[in-house]
Design goal:
Bound molecules: zinc ion
Strand order of the largest sheet: 4-5-8-7-9-13
Strand content: 25-35%
Helix content: 10-25%
Radius of gyration: 17 Å
Number of helices: 6
CATH architecture of one domain: 4-Layer Sandwich
Order of helices and strands: EEHEEEEEEHHEEHEEHEHE
CATH topology of one domain: CNF1/YfiH-like putative cysteine hydrolases
CATH class of one domain: Alpha Beta
Length: about 230
């Protein structure tokens, strides 16, 4: 397993890693968390590992009794000692951090979650919990980009026009563009967004469900305050 360090996106105020591996078979979430725990020397009992369901469900995790919520977005206090995780393979992994209100969230936004505005809804929930828009820094990680994300015309029509590209009568969707459009609509400043623009389908360092199908593993995005 390899851990890619993205902490500099948040000026190292929090730790943000993404695990990847060259294993081209799927591995259980438990095994992945075990390896991450050993590599980062963290307390395994405090990992938040949601059961993801391609929804717009957001869970504010406040207690150790809530570590496996059924949802696609988790919010927790940075100083709680909890370690947030989210699993992805092509879907957009997102981490939001507010250093003023000391809150972290991790979001899984595939095409279903993106159409349900899960990233924007998480931002709004953080604001309900006391964050100010200008304090929220948002990281959007490696995901399948429009170059490799062909969909049928019916699905493409559900997205904003600017998030769809048409080439030789084929339809491609741009999830990052849709998410940033949704965030602009609620006046999140551009300077608060950090986009890691690698395409998971094209880069063998990443798992890609569309490329490898059932053989595809999953990556884990991990965030915590040191
Ligand atoms: Zn691509």
């Amino acid at each position: 397993m390899k851990l890619i360090n993205y902490s500099s996106f948040f000026s190292n105020d929090i730790s943000l890693y993404m695990s990847s591996s060259t294993l081209f078979h799927s591995e259980s979430k438990k095994n992945r968390i075990n390896k991450i725990q050993k590599l980062l020397k963290l307390d395994q009992k405090r990992f938040i590992t949601p059961d993801q369901i391609h929804s717009d469900k957001i869970c504010f995790v406040e207690h150790d009794s809530m570590l496996s919520p059924e949802c696609d977005s988790v919010i927790f206090h940075a100083n709680s000692g909890l370690i947030g995780t989210i699993s992805i393979a092509d879907c957009v992994p997102c981490c939001i951090y507010d250093s003023a209100n000391e809150m972290i969230s991790l979001v899984h936004s595939g095409w279903k979650g993106t159409l349900k505005n899960i990233v924007r809804k998480t931002v709004l929930k953080m604001i309900m919990l006391g964050s100010k828009k200008e304090d929220l820094k948002i990281f959007l990680g490696p995901s399948i980009r429009w170059c490799c994300y062909q969909v049928d015309e019916t699905l493409s029509k559900k997205f904003n026009r600017d998030s769809v590209r048409v080439k030789s009568q084929k339809y491609f969707i741009d999830l990052i563009k849709q998410i940033t459009f949704d965030l602009k609509e609620i006046s999140i400043p551009d300077k608060n967004l950090f986009i890691q623009s690698d395409c998971t389908y094209e880069n063998s360092n990443y798992h890609s469900f569309r490329r490898d199908g059932n053989l595809s593993g999953r990556m884990t995005l991990i965030a915590f305050k040191n």
